[in-house]
Amino acid sequence: MYQALYRKYRPKTLEDVVGQQVIIKTLTNSVLNNKITHAYLFTGPRGTGKTSIAKILAKIVNCESLSGVTPCNKCVSCTQTDLKQNTDIIEIDAASNNGVDKIREIRDKVSLVPSYGKYKVYIIDEVHMLTTEAFNALLKTLEEPPQHIIFILATTEPHKIPATILSRCQRYDFKKISMSEIEKRLKYICSEEKIIIDDEAINLIAKLSDGGMRDSISLLDQLTSYTSDKITINDVHNVYGTITDIEIYNLLNMIYNNELANIFDTIEQYDNQGKNLVKIMELMIDFLKNTLLYITSSDYFKVEEQKQMYANIYKITNEKSIYRTIDILLDSIKNSKLSNNSRLLFELSIIKIIELKSEKVVENQDKEENNIPIIAQQKKIESKTKIETKEISDSVKNNIEKLKQIRIKNTLSRFDKKELMEFKSKLEDLKELLMDPDYSNIVSLILDGELKAKGKENLIFVYETNSLEEYFNLSLINIEQIFNKKFNENLKPIAVSKDEWEPIKLEFNKNMKNQTNKYLYEEETKPLEEIYELNIKNQDTEKNLNDIEESFEDIVVYN
């Protein structure tokens, strides 16, 4: 049977291990100085050598004719280990054996002496998957193990392991393996296996593996099945579902030039070709990161073609727009874990990026029964020159400021911490509307803020910038309609900036400390339509929308 390359080239000695020099040196000295401890914890990303080193260490401590830290491979223990028949080395997958009964079984057997060597070694992989009861059962054995017992715990998520377990282990943190070390190992494997491959392809494999040696070797193995000829960089892109730097550059060019139709055609082509759209978004982020790096230090890049691409992208955008693009793409990648429709998320992120660089507020005039009229959507101005726009009238500003003070006072007059915590958890339910283009902008705005106070129907949201706070308060009709639709409550939110919130919070806390609440509830006398001075003559929805459009079509909120 064919043996996978990552198994065939798994390290057999500590000297074979790539990229973990500090750990290798520490373990080597421990063996040479006879300072083997009873419990080890190996943590770090997947494919970085945790299980391999655990197996090597188990073999070393039981070898009868050890040469330094190199097993003899001739004694009974070594030969039994190589044949995977060594009863003194017990490997347990905690992902599938995570119950308390399995750990109790271990606890009952630890008193048994080793069959061949000096130690019984228990290697527990994915140890974070153990149940709380299983950890409790393991605790006493870890605290006072017999002299002949060694535990090696391996995990990618050490934060899920109880502190009582962590404190009883000698911890080793494995790091991601560098691209140069991965490339060197891949070239060695290709040489041994007579695989013909371009250096560019090896470089891309190392980059895509993200520091995981096993991932890189597995991808190389897959490529040898894909083609019997020379492996090229295009083969890597085809197998992994990625695209070239030139294609990434062209895609970003279309985005920053607002070529929405061409972008959607391109995404459809990639989807039909089976490309990995999430990985493409990651490559776009990497390209934009390099663009920012080029702006700061162009000498970092040696290839002129790369430098020219980064320079061209920067000519049609700026740092602020690049950072926003990265944020939007990161959100889409995160949301892709909760959805199986990566194409929709990708397309929505493209729309949002293009909208954010627009210079005018776009009205949503969808008149279907349950749709929400968007009063004012935030459009970020990317131009370095000032754009002439119609200002919001002073009377509207005064109306909003008066409403803001009333709603702040009303919220704090009936502040309830329990209600605040309960409603904070309910806000997560709004994420379901992010996929709906009719609601996504306003819902994103709500979720960008932080709910700081709640009193009955009143809410206070805090925003990092004044522009977001202004945008929120211009969109109150829409926000209230969303809350009513989602939670069936007539809520009255308001937004303040972070700078405004600090003195409000200090004053409120001071009052609470003195067991007094000086805030008095005040009824709102004006409807929102009147506050915004919308020219509404009757209750006809279509006419309302037309009036809204006329009043707000030129409003631009500055960042």
Keywords, separated by commas or semicolons:
559 residues, alpha/beta, Rossmann fold, Helicase, Ruva Protein, domain 3, Zinc Finger, Delta Prime, domain 3, five-stranded parallel beta sheet, 25 helices, 8 strands, 52% helix, 8% strand, disordered C terminus
Structure description:
The chain has 559 residues and is an alpha/beta fold. The chain is 52% helix and 8% strand. β2, α5 (100-109) and β3 (120-125) form a beta-alpha-beta unit. The longest helix has 20 residues, at 277-296. 34% of the residues are buried.
The termini sit apart by 63 Å
Counted by DSSP, the helix tally is: 25
Given as residue ranges, the uncertain stretches (5+ residues, pLDDT < 50) are 359-390, 536-559
Estimate the strand proportion: 5-15%
Helix content: 40-55%
- How many beta-strand runs? 8
Mean pLDDT: 82
* CATH class call of the largest domain: Alpha Beta
The strands making up the biggest β-sheet line up spatially as 2-3-4-1-5
Radius of gyration: 31 Å
The coarse overall form would be flat
Given the helix and strand composition, which structural class is it? Answer: alpha/beta
How many domains comprise the coordinates? 4
Largest sheet: 5 strands, parallel
CATH topology heading of the largest domain: Rossmann fold
Please state the second-level CATH architecture of the largest domain. Answer: 3-Layer(aba) Sandwich
Per CATH, the superfamily of the largest domain is: P-loop containing nucleotide triphosphate hydrolases
